[in-house]
Specification:
The chain is α+β, with helices and mostly antiparallel strands and about 170 residues long. It is about 25% helix and about 20% strand. It contains five helices and eight strands. It is globular, with a radius of gyration of 15 Å.
Amino acid sequence: MQAPAGVCRAAHPAPLTATAVASPGARRSPSAVSAAEIARVDLFADLTPEQLARIAGWARLRSVHGGERVTRRWDASRDFFVILRGTADVERDNQRIGDLAEGSFFGELAAVDWGAGYGYPRLATVTATSPMRLLVLEPSHLNRLMTEAPPLAARVREAMRTRLATV
């Protein structure tokens, strides 16, 4: 959902173009996520191979144990999460309000730039109910994707409308 305080972010990430994609021989971290794995996520279904490769270069992976909190309500972190593997519960005010599974995403309300750097605080606590593998994007990257990929932006905005209606 949101980045920890003190983490530097690029103000304007490079556009999603083929020229910005790492060369085929570039070395990647063993914990990196591949463009092919990203392409299997419904949220990213309409993206070009170049865009998928860019996400693979931007993304961090996070592993979470069952029972571990991924986000806490009212936190000011701003990362955006996509579940590659695992499940989680969503709760607000000690009441379970939903569940998340592989392919689900969360953190968009905090990650989206609403203007002048404004983002919502975390509005729910997300707790892993099984071991999870998460793709994590910084807010600047999510915002760039939403600008350049209207179908992705529509999915994220629909989730935002739905989630804000329950607050």
